[in-house]
From TrEMBL:
Pathway: Carbohydrate degradation; pentose phosphate pathway; D-ribose 5-phosphate from D-ribulose 5-phosphate (non-oxidative stage): step 1/1. GO terms for biological process: D-ribose metabolic process; pentose-phosphate shunt, non-oxidative branch; pyridoxine biosynthetic process. GO terms for cellular component: cytoplasm. It catalyses: aldehydo-D-ribose 5-phosphate = D-ribulose 5-phosphate. It comes from Glarea lozoyensis (strain ATCC 20868 / MF5171). InterPro entries: NagB/RpiA_transferase-like, Ribose5P_isomerase_type_A. CDD domains: RPI_A. The lineage of its organism: Eukaryota, Fungi, Dikarya, Ascomycota, Pezizomycotina. Keywords: Isomerase, Transferase. SUPFAM superfamilies: D-ribose-5-phosphate isomerase (RpiA), lid domain (SSF75445), NagB/RpiA/CoA transferase-like (SSF100950). Belongs to the ribose 5-phosphate isomerase family. Its EC number is 5.3.1.6. GO terms for molecular function: ribose-5-phosphate isomerase activity; transferase activity. This is Ribose-5-phosphate isomerase. The keyword Nucleotide-binding does not apply.
Amino acid sequence: DNIEAAKRRAAYKAVEDHFDTSYRYVGIGSGSTVVYVVEAIAAKGRDVTSKIVFIPTGDQSKQLIIEAGLPLGSIDSLPPVEIEHSKLDGLSALQVATGLQDLGLKGKRQSLDVAFDGADEIDEELNCIKGGGACLFQEKLVATAAKKFICVADSRKLQPRLLTKWKTIPIEIAPFAAPTIKRILITLGSPDPVIRQGGSAKAGPVVTDNGMWIMDAPFPPLLLASDLKHGDHGDGENGTWEVHHLGRRLKRIVGVLEVGLFHGRNGLQVASAGEEGGGQKP
Ligand code: DER
């Protein structure tokens, strides 16, 4: 039908524009759209794909890579980065960790050449809500480990601001902390956070690939640059500022593993600080 056709077109375009045969490590996301990304890459033939390691973002993504005959890697098998210990002489932990002292390693934070993934909602600044498929932790781990994060989505996902059509922020949490996290989210203005249930697929909560639960927290729509006087927060695209700071506030709740807010172009710089996924044109 035309939605599947739109997903496929978006996926083939993303691969055409952002996949390069010189790449060595490629992240593969989760969901139904990324299936077409794998199809488009596999179509390039084994002489291309056999030289590349494909990094999954969960069990579905892993199956996708295996079934497409692509070489399977894993995020914990990537080459390590080394630091010359002499560079730390006389510096405090805070000075090095906050980059006050450039260790010349920033460019080495991303070990993947590119990561392709879907999203549940995207705004015009390429901020995304992710986690509809309950894979957001490994998706963000891989997205922030990639030099380029390509979000692939059909036009249904594009909204003027986040939380327009997709009403909740998926949050991956430690099951034991669920009541406490729910209480805190309510005090932060989320009217009715719910633990995602398996429904007919599984009695009780959905258990993620990491043995965690998903709490879906409804919030009012996020703001965009157009909602605020430019520069209110003094760092360019305000919408991204909103997403970034809401994401960090939610991430700080004890028991939260990861939050399903990825932020856009601005985020690319922040992503290089290893905080959140950045985004390229879908
Ligand atoms: O969980 C996620 O963020 C996935 O990327 C997913 O929600 C996208 O799913 P779709 O491609 O099937 O719409």
